[in-house]
Amino acid sequence: MAWKNVKNHKEILAEIYQTLYDAFGPQQWWPGDTPFEIAIGAILTQNTNWGNVEKAIGNLKRRKALSVRVMHGMDNGKLAELIRPAGYFNVKTKRLKAFLTFLLGQYRGSMEDMAKNGTPFLREQLLEIHGIGPETADSILLYALEKPIFVIDAYTKRVLQRHGLVKEKTSYSEMQGLFQDRLHKDAQLFNEYHALLVRLGKEYCRPRPKCAPCPLRSFPVVTRQVKPEDRQFRIQNDMSRVRSA
Ligand code: SF4
Whose CA is closest to 200, among 149, 153, 139, 237? Predict the structure, then answer.
């Protein structure tokens, strides 16, 4: 059973948001004291968990190195040592340096100056920086610069796919459009929604899903990835939630 022709995506996305917000409450993302710290965290969190990023940022703070000019002027080996807990530290050092060079060159090192530009222009600029892909660029735009853009990550894709809202091959920009074209374009809403999906993915919608206690347990699941024993509820129950369009 799919959502198709039963309920439109706008209603479904609104309902998912409300259900998650009611279950989890506000998530108050992104953890970080300044827009610059948030941007650095967005680069460091690639391919690692947040706990490791916190250790790396803690190292930078203890050395009083969490500033554009200090980090930019630092020897690569020294910077790599400080961010070592975040993993892939040599690769990430190069990515950080590329971002810092961009920030200094284009905006005199000021995230506030950067934020004065429009979202499409900034996104293009960020995507040209070595090692910054769509998810990192959008995380910087949304969480550091408070621009209304939806971040898509593996958690979001997994939830959407399992509930039949996207397909395996749906692209990043199509998934992003699913949210941005149907929800009020509001940075706070996009911030909260994405944070709620991440929490959902970490606690329930794991590779082996825990559907029975999950807040979205009564929403139709359409994928074979989710076995009946994971769901522990019957498709007929799902149907009762779905009304004709
Ligand atoms: S754990 Fe199950 S019910 Fe929860 S979001 Fe994932 S597939 Fe849906």
Answer: 153
Q: Return the ligand 1 atom nearest residue 230 CA.
A: 2
Torsion angle in degrees (nearest 10) through CA of 118, 124, 127, 130: -100
- Model pTM score: 0.88
> Could you tell me if 231 and 211 are in contact, meaning their C-beta atoms sit under 8 angstroms apart?
yes
What residues of the chain score a pLDDT lower than 70?
Answer: 1-7, 223-245
Condensed to tens digits (0 to 9), the pLDDT of residues 35-49 reads 999 999 999 999 999
What is the rounded CA–CA span in Å between residue 24 and residue 196? 7
Domains, the chain, ranges and CATH? 1-24+150-183+193-245 (1.10.1670), 35-144 (1.10.340.30)
Q: What is the pLDDT of residue 8?
A: 87
**CB neighbours of residue 158 within 10 Å:** 20
Q: What angle in degrees, to the nearest 10, is found between the helix axes of 187-203 and 172-180?
A: 120
| Ligand 1 binding site (Cβ under 6 Å of any ligand atom) | 159, 162-163, 200, 204-205, 209-211, 214, 216-217, 221, 226
Atom 6, ligand 1: residue with shortest CA distance: 205
d(CA 211, CA 217): 5
Residue pair 242/24 in contact by the 8 Å Cβ criterion: no
Ligand 1 centre distance from Cα of residue 229 (Å): 12
Which structure tokens are listed for 128?
Answer: 């040209």
Atom of ligand 1 nearest to the CA of 211: 2
